[in-house]
């Protein structure tokens, strides 16, 4: 039984990390064009560094919640379970998940500004703009900015294409190509969504079993059900 978990900002909301498009979301407070596009990085790299230093400080102070822990339990008891996330925090890993595919980067790392996958770990919360990667280029946040390629998307599509069950947690399904992962799940795959809101389910609405609960409540319930059935 191949279970693939696909998460967005909602899985970390109850850990105190803001989502992007909810009422008090990050994109209500900051303009994407100023801090999360390739042009913003070229125009004002210090502002981007400051923005992601603040995100990193929040992420390091946050703790995994019951949803992250339940997903890790699923991986531990059902071999082959994979986690794909749009999130840049490391709460899945700190909850015990392994081999997490981060589609939009990782806040705990910096990368070369000439090689999109050449990432190195950052100790602490603060990047100092001007430090250089071993390849000599300026270090930058290891984040996929809008307008940049998503290097691990093909890998995520391959994973999704083998799913018997796709568990989607806490994403508005607004951002592509990430949201198109649902299209890569086999026709016969079960799609379970845990989200208190109403994501853009599009053509999948009739296939999706929507559990309209917060992640910390809905995910442990679903995981207990899956463990009882398949562990
Ligand atoms: N439990 C589960 N889901 C929740 C919770 C919660 N406690 N609180 C909010 N949500 C849901 C919202 O209903 C919404 O569907 O989380 C989702 C958050 O949607 P977005 O803010 O759009 O976040 P996400 O879908 O992850 O955004 C995708 O956009 O800005 C980019 O790179 C960024 O990875 C991000 C991408």
Explain the overall architecture:
With 231 residues, the chain is an alpha/beta fold. The chain folds into 2 domains: 138 residues, Rossmann fold, CATH 3.40.50.1220; 83 residues, 2-Layer Sandwich (SIR2/SIRT2 'Small Domain'). It is built from 10 helices and 9 strands. The strands form 2 sheets. Strands 3-2-1-7-8-9 form a 6-stranded parallel β-sheet. The termini are close together. The mean pLDDT is 96. The chain binds adenosine-5-diphosphoribose (APR). Adenosine-5-diphosphoribose binds next to helix 1.
In a few lines, what is going on in this structure?
This protein has 231 residues and is an alpha/beta fold. Helices cover 35% and strands 18% of the residues.
Q: Say what the CATH topology of the largest domain is.
A: Rossmann fold
CATH C-level class of the largest domain is: Alpha Beta
**Global Rg:** 17 Å
Question: How many domains?
Answer: 2
Major sheet size, sense and barrel closure: 6 strands, parallel
The side-by-side strand order for the widest beta sheet comes to 3-2-1-7-8-9
Low-pLDDT residue intervals, each spanning 5 or more residues:
none
Helix content: 25-40%
How many angstroms does the end-to-end distance come to?
9 Å
- Proportion in β-strands: 15-25%
> What is the number of strand segments?
9
- Tell the overall outline: globular
Structural class: alpha/beta
Bound molecules: adenosine-5-diphosphoribose
Mean pLDDT: 96
Q: Return the string of H and E elements.
A: EHHHHHHEHEEEEHEHEEH
Per CATH, the architecture of the largest domain is 3-Layer(aba) Sandwich
CATH superfamily of the largest domain: TPP-binding domain
